[in-house]
# Entry
Amino acid sequence: MKKTIKALLFLLPVLLGTACTSRNEFFISPNGDDGDPGTRGKPFASIERARMEVREAISEGLDSDITVWIEDGRYLIDRPIEFASGDSGRNGFTIHYRALPGESPVLSGGYDIKGWQKEDDALWSASIAELQGISGLRELFINGTRAPRARTPNAGYLRVKKAGDDHRTNFYYESGAFPPPDNPETVEIVLLHDWSISRVKVKNIDLVSEKITAVDSIGVRAPSFYTIDHWEPHPRYYLENSLSFLDADNEWFYDESQKKVYLRLPPGMNPEECSISIPVSEGLIILAGTPESPVGNLRFEGMSFSHSTWKLSELGYSGLQATHFDPRPQSGEWAVVDSAVKAEWVENCVFTNCHFGHLGGGGLWLAAGCRNCLVEDSVFTDISGNGIMIGEGRDRMIDGESWWKSAPEQAAKGNRIENCTITECGRQFFGAVGIWCGLVAETTISGNEISNLPYTGVSIGWMWDPQPTPCRENIIEENHIHHIMQVLSDGGGIYMLGLQPGSRLVNNHIHDVKINAGKAESNGMFIDEGSTGLVIANNLIYNIAKSPLRFHKATTNLVRDNYLFCSGDNPPIRYNRTLEEDIQKSGNSVFYESDPIYREKLAEILDEWQ
# Structure
């Protein structure tokens, strides 16, 4: 009898576990129901519902990790899911949001367009009037591929004939440069500066004087040199977003007055047989802690983050650098293109084996106060802004003083980006970079492949002089950076800025910086104003349009044991307003294209690096 009672007591927790939800394990499925208990057999339907249940379990006290298992499928949201300090792991335990083994769930802020009507043999239209609050639509995806917004020319650029008198708001164009748009006020000017771009709406097109006038300044208002023709007298531009420009396969145009999307498809292609989606959610995940109560110990694994939008001001976007811009209509501190997944005041959080793509802003931002977070083995691709951002700029104020002076301990610190693939960022905002880091400390960027970018691969530092900031001891190592600087100029595979004592750029493989457009040159590494105390060692740099290394207004730095392959008559190191004797050099191997052994030596070293 006693044995029978003991057996029943042993089985009781098992039997109860089959009747109610385990408090340390929940399940989500697209076919689930948020009214169900979240078990394997009766899963929830949404991540938000699981988050609420997890929060309740946390409040009762953790004695183990909690895992939310996410089944394959698409989870649609129309606003970001927000995690606060009450959603954190604690007592040494972690909260996991994890794809089921072998599955690839997608958190999507998208909307599938249906009800297409044929306008002519290749032109289709569909109403999206049922969507509330949709304005300034900027992205559309056909079968998972970003479709171009109607533009002229379809490829390449036009050239400004002459800047207007104020060099800011208007310019003259060449005769016959583009088809006159039906409604000029829908048109957006996309004008390229050396290392940034402007996207500003048209106010008027004067067909007689052949003059385009924008609704606001083209180029940031400050610094004052961001004029239309500062870098080049005839800068590159194109025009976007008019039905008159809709002349190529897969181009699209959104008529905001009619709430209607127009799409040109190849003959015989039916949009009703395609997946055609637009982003509607402004962001996907927000981790929102505070200095007093950070979010911590969350882990996201095996998830995809897709179809997030970011809205421009009616007065447009004028980029400063790395998708920072002046806010409009107000003035003040620089703003930045926001990211689909954003974390502030977060500690010990992990994103592993995740995918970030088809995004209208940036990918992931570990912003103010983020500490000891890890992003690993993840893919960032097809992103309008920066792929990954860490830290912040100089502008946040505390009691009337810049944060980095009054509270330097708040700097993002100890974060790591490891073994990620970052490609095709800057799809809308060409000044974007693969990885941007502001005033950060003890950051490690290691083992990543960064490629196919319009501007710089890695940018770190945000102070244009050598005054001390919290920026220090950052390591960029063993990254493969290639085919970057494909649109803009004055950057490189790695761009450093400001005083960063104890920082190292080592064992990086950088190549194919072949396009050098604009006034300033592009390099393998560009070490800019105020850079001091860096170690640049054991890097392999080749196939660079200009010099492999460039210093500008830098002071004392060490360059040793690098392989520098030079094109044409470019020197291995360019010194712009930098004293050559301040750059300590030792053990570097330099080869010129004119050397008979150039190709042989490059092949030999590449074999060693494989």
User: Anything to note?
Assistant: Confidence is low (pLDDT under 50) at residues 1-22. Residues 2-19 form the longest helix (18 residues). Residues 310-609 form a domain with the Pectate Lyase C-like fold (CATH 2.160.20). DSSP finds four helices and 59 strands in the chain.
